[in-house]
């Protein structure tokens, strides 16, 4: 597709830039640049308030239509907002799972009652969501999950364990993929349920300590948790179709936001290389240039796929590109700093022994970039089977 911005987009950009500049220069100045992958534990209370501020300003749910969201917006205007948000170094979104994953899924597969119940609350920034997909023995191989949901009158009773659940401590709701037909194998017999997290004694959340010392991921244990039958999305047994539709949302506009953040990180690494003299190393200099060029390619690919409805391989290609790129950036950041990269804080009395600086967190957190959200191996299988038409891999 030809992707370009017009006069209306420029006006929209000016409005977005002015609103962000005013809000981030006032009450929310302290959370500018706070949060996001690797730092989700920072400033959570203030970032929840920021979600509500975004809702009041009409900036959540762009493009949903005024029946469910705050305002209408074209695709190019959604891109404009994403770009300006990232450039303003606005806080990492604690509501992104609800806005960018759940909401498009409900719009595509939910019934009218579900849309009217859940979408306005997300658009107001009032309800936060987490994703109940991965399990200890069903990560990238999601079809092997063991969590079950048993019909109990007007409800389902959900039992099982989910893992690597981002923002589960903060979330009000969780969309859960569970097996409703125990006699069915793999992706058959799965259902997509919306489960309230405030069920003491039935839902327990346990933070997982990471290499970086933080705990933004969690284990979630369901012990007969209640999910209303009216909160079953797409019909019983249609969970795999809905779940795959949801995963396809992790591309396009949201990846453009991610790439602007990547560009800022790369800029800081380049500045440090110049300032410290590491850029004089021809090998490192070539690696920095390659990172810049690959980031440009990722942007062009993301813009291309915005108009590629039905492109089965687009999400997998995007994941392969950015996962490896970001991991290499973390390695480069440490190489630029040299031996100092392995040294902890100088004043141990003033800081926690395992507290890391931003670049050390980047290096450690990016080790997981090629695993979470679907490992590189799984993405290559998807491309091989669904795009290239190669024989399917035998699975037990």
Automatic annotation (TrEMBL):
Alphabetical list of SUPFAM superfamilies matching this protein: Acyl-CoA dehydrogenase C-terminal domain-like (SSF47203), Acyl-CoA dehydrogenase NM domain-like (SSF56645)
InterPro entries for this protein: Acyl-CoA_Oxase/DH_mid-dom, Acyl-CoA_Oxase/DH_mid-dom_sf, AcylCo_DH-like_C, AcylCo_DH/oxidase_C, AcylCoA_DH/ox_N, AcylCoA_DH/ox_N_sf, AcylCoA_DH/oxidase_NM_dom_sf, Mycobact_Acyl-CoA_DH
Keyword terms, alphabetized: FAD, Flavoprotein, Oxidoreductase
Top-level lineage group: Bacteria
Keyword Oxidoreductase: yes
Domain Acyl-CoA oxidase/dehydrogenase middle positions: 130-223
Acyl-CoA dehydrogenase/oxidase C-terminal domain mapped to chain residues: 237-388
Signal peptide segment: none
Named cofactor requirement(s): FAD
Domain Acyl-CoA dehydrogenase/oxidase N-terminal: 49-126
Family: Belongs to the acyl-CoA dehydrogenase family.
Protein name: Acyl-CoA dehydrogenase family protein
Species of origin: Streptomyces celluloflavus
Source lineage: Bacteria, Bacillati, Actinomycetota, Actinomycetes, Kitasatosporales
């Amino acid at each position: 597709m030809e992707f370009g911005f017009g006069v209306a987009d420029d006006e929209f950009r000016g409005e977005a830039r002015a609103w962000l500049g005013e809000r981030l220069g006032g009450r929310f100045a302290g959370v500018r640049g706070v949060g996001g992958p690797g730092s989700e534990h920072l400033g959570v209370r203030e970032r929840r308030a920021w979600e509500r501020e975004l809702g009041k300003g009409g900036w959540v749910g762009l493009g949903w239509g005024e029946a469910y969201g705050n305002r209408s917006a074209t695709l190019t205007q959604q891109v404009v907002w994403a770009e300006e948000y990232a450039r303003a170094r606005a806080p990492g979104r604690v509501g992104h799972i609800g806005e960018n994953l759940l909401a498009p899924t409900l719009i595509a597969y939910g019934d009218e009652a579900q849309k009217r119940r859940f979408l306005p609350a997300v658009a107001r920034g009032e309800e936060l969501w987490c994703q109940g997909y991965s399990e200890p023995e069903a990560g990238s191989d999601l079809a092997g999950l063991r969590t079950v949901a048993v019909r109990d009158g007007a409800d389902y009773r959900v039992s099982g364990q989910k893992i690597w659940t981002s923002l589960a401590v903060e979330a009000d709701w969780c969309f859960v993929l569970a097996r409703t037909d125990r006699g069915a194998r793999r992706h058959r017999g799965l259902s997509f349920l919306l489960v309230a997290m405030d069920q003491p004694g039935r839902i327990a959340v346990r933070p997982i300590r990471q290499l970086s010392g933080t705990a933004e991921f969690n284990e979630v244990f369901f012990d007969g948790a209640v999910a209303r039958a009216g909160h079953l999305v797409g019909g019983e047994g249609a969970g795999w179709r809905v779940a795959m539709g949801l995963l396809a949302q992790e591309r396009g506009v949201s990846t453009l936001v991610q790439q602007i953040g990547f560009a800022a990180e790369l800029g800081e690494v380049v500045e440090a290389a110049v300032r410290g003299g590491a850029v004089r190393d021809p090998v490192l200099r070539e690696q920095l240039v390659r990172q810049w060029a690959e980031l440009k390619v990722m942007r062009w690919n993301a813009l291309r796929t915005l108009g590629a409805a039905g492109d089965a391989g687009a999400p997998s290609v995007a994941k392969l590109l950015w996962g490896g790129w970001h991991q290499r950036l973390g390695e480069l950041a440490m190489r630029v700093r040299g031996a100092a990269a392995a040294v902890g804080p100088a004043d141990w009395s003033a800081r926690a022994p395992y507290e890391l600086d931003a670049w050390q967190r980047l290096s450690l957190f990016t080790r997981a970039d090629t695993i979470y959200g679907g490992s590189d191996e799984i993405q290559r299988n998807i491309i091989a089977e669904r795009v290239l038409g190669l024989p399917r891999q035998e699975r037990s």
